[in-house]
Amino acid sequence: AGEDRPIAEAYRQDHRLPNQNRIESDRVKENRGAFPDPDAGPVMPFKEDDQDNDEPQQKKEEDNLVLAPPQELPGEMGKAVVLPTNLTEAVKKMVDDGWLKNAFNQYASDMISVHRSLPDPRDEWCKEPDRYLTNLPKTSVIICFHNEAWSVLLRTVHSVFDRSPPELIHEVILVDDFSDMDHLKTQLEEYWANEPKVKIVRAPKRLGLIRARLLGYDYATGPVLTYLDSHCECTTGWLEPLLDRIARNSTTVVCPVIDVIDDTTLAYLYHDSTGVNVGGFDWNLQFNWHAIPNHEKKRHKNTAEPVWSPTMAGGLFSIDREFFKKLGTYDEGFDIWGGENLELSFKTWMCGGTLEIVPCSHVGHIFRKRSPYKWRSGINVLRRNSVRLAEVWLDEYSQYYYQRIGNDKGDFGDISDRRSLRNNLGCKSFRWYLDNIYPELFIPGEAVANGEMRNMGYGGKTCLDSAARKSDLHKPAGLYPCHRQGGNQFWLYSKAGEIRRDEACLDYSGQEVILYPCHGSKGNQYWDYDSVKKLIRHGSSDKCLGIDAAKKKLIMERCDPNLDHQKWNMENYDR
Ligand code: LR7
Ligand code: MN
């Protein structure tokens, strides 16, 4: 494994730029321009000429200044790479280009060895003797990419080879989803030419990540499949605990803990096993993270034990190949991005399997703030995928998703095959899944009103509006012209008097009206709606909710039934 190599040896191999790690054909040399030029950029801690030269040499004093000791290579041990602020214009441009193409700091990544060392985030429990079975099955590792950065893709693959027992890696399948970046063409093939375990599969047209994964599945021959995104880094001992769970029960689908590789500094950030989260979803059919619920905590003696998770994030998991096949792999009608993570999660649980997060296995992933590549134009891919998912797996609960998209399902294609798959497998109901696997989820059907919250002042065109994401919590709730499309204007009025969406509740503590995580204890989150007078009276302050048109914000005032801007229409009110 990478970390075990003696430092000097590691240094000899690692102190090159990523682009120097490959076999350099003439054509590849011409491509050099695509990578940072060490002379133009921030001072690199080495000089090219010094590599592989063990002869003692006469050194000038300045050489000693430039040569840094091995432990100070950029990004080693998962450390942050912080670019100097006084970059030349040329370098600044390269940094900006890297961000533009990838939505992460490619320039910083290119400075880091593709074999960089990482911290070992595992608990001691994970390393105890006989923790894992000795005869583990081999895995095919499948990595799909569409226009991934060179150093990032290579580091993903090397981290697999550098930190897995070789006998457990059956093959690494790189699925190129119709990329057009030059470095992903022959350069990639030449780089891996001497590594028989690496297979490169090219999609004949843009498939999207779900069908690209299915293409990889078609080529894979190992008994276990392990999927990774193309911007990951595996840590020491990541693989054995995953394969161990599958060896013990082939219907267990397992995910590593997904650590954060910072998009700006490429720092590897992790928590110990007390900080493990599990996956959930909201009625927008979006994946989210939660603390481990108490009923699950009670099943464990040690925090490093595998935990049941209602859903998976999607990109990083291992599954028995036959079980994946039995579950009908993925819906081939899913395009580009999204929905497949919930599909696989729901059917794993509903059709006889178990989904776990394995705290002994840590893999890093570069989390981006935007999607860098082209989606399809003219169609809402994510909605189409999610409607297919809802139609096949959600039973009567699909209505809660449809409410959120203004009941506009659009054209979602033919799903009859997926429905018969579910019938033939004899899977349990979605209600069973909610009751048993995800009892924490708030069910909108228990609400007294659902839909828009329209203010009657100033012509009655203004609605309560907020994305209510995690990042919107603790911030003022917004207003926007009513658009009748659900989404950020879809609210639930719960029996408990909350005005909420998912885990966000309207909350007033004397200052601004904000969104705050729902706490279920009334107080600042208790709103009493009088459906005749149309007033919304706040529990702890006894004031009424209104709007200030000039400031375009929510206000709290002494209740006055004569003021239109204190009157609200709650959609589908039914008490
Ligand atoms: O058209 C495409 N073709 C591809 O091959 C689009 C993407 N891809 C590749 C892409 O290069 C990448 O390797 O597919 C992989 C995933 O795409 P990302 O990295 O843009 O997705 P993401 O990390 O933003 O999104 C998460 O949700 C997706 C839903 O479809 C997938 O399941 C991703 O794998 C998933 N990533 C993770 O689970 C990592 C943890 C993120 C979280 C939470
Ligand atoms: Mn990703």
UniProtKB/TrEMBL annotation:
Residues 10-63 are annotated as: Disordered. Residues 450-571 form the Ricin B lectin domain. It comes from the Eukaryota. Pfam families: Glycos_transf_2 (PF00535), Ricin_B_lectin (PF00652). Its EC number is 2.4.1.-. One of its GO terms (cellular component) is Golgi membrane. It is a single-pass type II membrane protein. The keyword Glycosyltransferase applies. Keywords: Disulfide bond, Glycoprotein, Glycosyltransferase, Golgi apparatus, Lectin, Manganese, Membrane, Metal-binding, Signal-anchor, Transferase, Transmembrane, Transmembrane helix. Residues 10-32 have a biased composition (Basic and acidic residues). It is found in: Golgi apparatus membrane. Its main location: Golgi. It catalyses: L-threonyl-[protein] + UDP-N-acetyl-alpha-D-galactosamine = a 3-O-[N-acetyl-alpha-D-galactosaminyl]-L-threonyl-[protein] + UDP + H(+); L-seryl-[protein] + UDP-N-acetyl-alpha-D-galactosamine = a 3-O-[N-acetyl-alpha-D-galactosaminyl]-L-seryl-[protein] + UDP + H(+). Belongs to the glycosyltransferase 2 family. GalNAc-T subfamily. This is Polypeptide N-acetylgalactosaminyltransferase. It comes from Rhynchophorus ferrugineus. The lineage of its organism: Eukaryota, Metazoa, Ecdysozoa, Arthropoda, Hexapoda.
